């Protein structure tokens, strides 16, 4: 307390200013100093500081890779829970890589519930209700479909399409059709082989008679 009183007494003697005026001027000088330092800070140092504050931003997202057709169950594995996989989301059956916006669609993000799903209905209704996290858009009115269309345009402009969403039934049918085609080819090959053997046998018989 004695030091403070002594300091207050010496300020007018050395500066000719009242203590209030002295501290006001001192505060203004400090503010100007900080402002000037901020104007001439090294940009590289500033970038390093920003990266330290946001370590995720310092690791750019890998380039999107075409993944092809996948079922809803397969799409769910790309919901951000596995950091080694890209972050995917579907609109109207079209799958987009949204890894570059992980801060929004990744775990903890405001739209994390949309990741790994076809969120067409939820986007059209601007809904966060889990029951609307589906690609079923039946019953939507024209205005809601227009909202969904706007979302689709935004995704087409910003994100790369990496595949199509298919139903498990369609996938199974494709597999069955493929098996049937393979079986048909095998049957045709056997018929050709049998016919060739018959022709050879007939030719040998005729040659023996001659």
Automatic annotation (TrEMBL):
Its main location: membrane. Residues 70-166 form the Cytochrome b5 heme-binding domain. GO terms for molecular function: metal ion binding; steroid binding. InterPro entries: Cyt_B5-like_heme/steroid-bd, Cyt_B5-like_heme/steroid_sf, MAPR/NEUFC/NENF-like. Residues 194-210 have a biased composition (Polar residues). Residues 178-193 have a biased composition (Basic and acidic residues). It comes from the Eukaryota. One of its GO terms (cellular component) is plasma membrane. The chain crosses the membrane at residues 20-41. It is found in: Cell membrane; Endoplasmic reticulum. Residues 167-210 are annotated as: Disordered. Keywords: Cell membrane, Endoplasmic reticulum, Heme, Iron, Lipid-binding, Membrane, Metal-binding, Steroid-binding, Transmembrane, Transmembrane helix. PANTHER family: MEMBRANE-ASSOCIATED PROGESTERONE RECEPTOR COMPONENT-RELATED (PTHR10281), NEUDESIN (PTHR10281:SF72). Belongs to the cytochrome b5 family. MAPR subfamily. This is Cytochrome b5 heme-binding domain-containing protein. It comes from Nelumbo nucifera (Sacred lotus).
């Amino acid at each position: 307390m004695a030091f403070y009183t002594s300091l207050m007494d010496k300020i007018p003697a050395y500066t000719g200013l009242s203590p209030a005026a002295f501290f006001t001027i001192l505060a203004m000088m400090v503010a100007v100093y900080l402002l000037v330092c901020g104007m001439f800070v090294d940009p590289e140092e500033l970038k390093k500081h920003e990266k330290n504050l946001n370590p995720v931003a310092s690791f750019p997202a890998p380039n999107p890779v075409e993944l092809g057709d996948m079922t809803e169950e397969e799409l769910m594995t790309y919901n951000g829970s596995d950091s080694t996989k890209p972050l995917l989301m579907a609109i109207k059956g079209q799958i987009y890589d949204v890894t570059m916006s992980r801060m929004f669609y990744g775990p903890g993000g405001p739209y994390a519930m949309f990741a790994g799903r076809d969120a067409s209905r939820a986007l059209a209704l601007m809904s966060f209700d889990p029951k609307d996290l589906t690609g079923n858009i039946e019953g939507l009115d024209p205005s809601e479909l227009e909202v969904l269309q706007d979302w689709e345009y935004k995704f087409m402009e910003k994100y790369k399409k990496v595949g199509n969403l298919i139903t498990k039934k369609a996938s199974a049918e494709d597999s069955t059709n493929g098996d049937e085609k393979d079986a048909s080819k095998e049957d045709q090959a056997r018929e050709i082989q049998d016919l060739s053997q018959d022709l050879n046998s007939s030719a040998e018989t005729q040659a023996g008679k001659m």
